[in-house]
Design brief:
139 residues; alpha+beta; Jelly Rolls; five-stranded antiparallel beta sheet; 3 helices; 37% strand; elongated
């Protein structure tokens, strides 16, 4: 069995951001030389997510507004976690809703995604460097 492990690094200028990373992940699949296997993509920080959905700007804005409605950033005093000196309790909650990782089948050397599926990195407490792990295994 072959494998590849790579890290993707991001530093978003905004507190919340959504970045389509499909091309980066596809390039790593090509680099791996794996024809059939699995690709794990996971956020390595507890205030960020990786998810799969449509690459449509309206939907991304809907996600952002929906998540902010579920766990608003302000007032920060509403969260016990923020009593520790942090101001990112909302980011932890948003990550829990959106999830940590995705696993994608690799078939004939390509990500086996549906017709509208794209891989996204979602940042909920940005403005500092964070990483995503890509681990590809197979034959």
């Amino acid at each position: 069995m072959k494998h590849l492990r790579e890290e993707l690094w991001f530093k978003t200028p905004r507190r919340r951001d959504y970045i389509n990373i499909t091309d980066k992940v596809e390039a790593l699949v090509g680099q791996s030389g794996i024809a059939n296997g699995l690709c794990l993509v996971n956020a390595m920080h507890i205030t960020a997510s990786v998810y799969i959905n449509d690459a449509e700007d309206g939907l991304i804005q809907d996600y952002d507004e929906w998540l902010e409605g579920l766990a608003p950033h302000a007032p920060t005093s509403r969260y016990r976690h923020n009593l520790t000196g942090e101001d990112n309790a909302d980011a932890h909650l948003k990550r829990q809703v959106m999830g940590r990782e995705v696993v994608i089948a690799i078939t004939d050397g390509q990500l086996d995604l549906g017709p509208w599926e794209q891989v996204y990195y979602a940042e909920f407490d940005g403005r500092r460097r964070k990483r995503v792990l890509v681990k590809i295994i197979g034959e």
